[in-house]
Fold this protein.
Amino acid sequence: MARSKEQQQMERANKETNTETSRPLTTFQSASFLSRALFLWPYPLLKIGLSRTIQEDDLPDILEPETSAANLKHMDELWKKAQLHSASKHGGQTERLSLHKIIVVDFLKDLWYIQIVQPIGLVARVTQSVALGLLIQYFSEGTDYREGYLWAFVLAFCGIVTLFEHHHNFMATWRKGLQLKTGKCSLFRWKHRS
């Protein structure tokens, strides 16, 4: 079956945006659960930066989901799927499509777990504030020492929950945002060239 001109142009754009490099593989790929949870995976690069100035050859290769080609393909698939959905829903009309809406829906679908984890972090921060107030109250009144330890434990535990929630949420949202930005730039560049 012959490929369409549009597919050939897209493949050509993919080849042009992907260049083979001799960079080391990113440590994120082979990182264990603990390494990812504690953000230990970038340490080898940071260690190089402590001893000398980081050169371009020291930077690891990016993962496949971050490449221009993968994000171009993803954005193109999102757009075509939205066109098909809009055409079937509105009798062949695709004028009502909104790239903004498509991107927001994709963002929320891919990061659904963030909407669950963020309220947990919010509850942890509020509980941390209450625990701090009760710990201060304990020191001013000097009641049972076990109560002081309890509020200190709650304060520390909520701090740890907040730390993990905050950093992992930012990592996930920034990464997805970068993928969408890369996909949009690649898509606009590809559309402009065709």
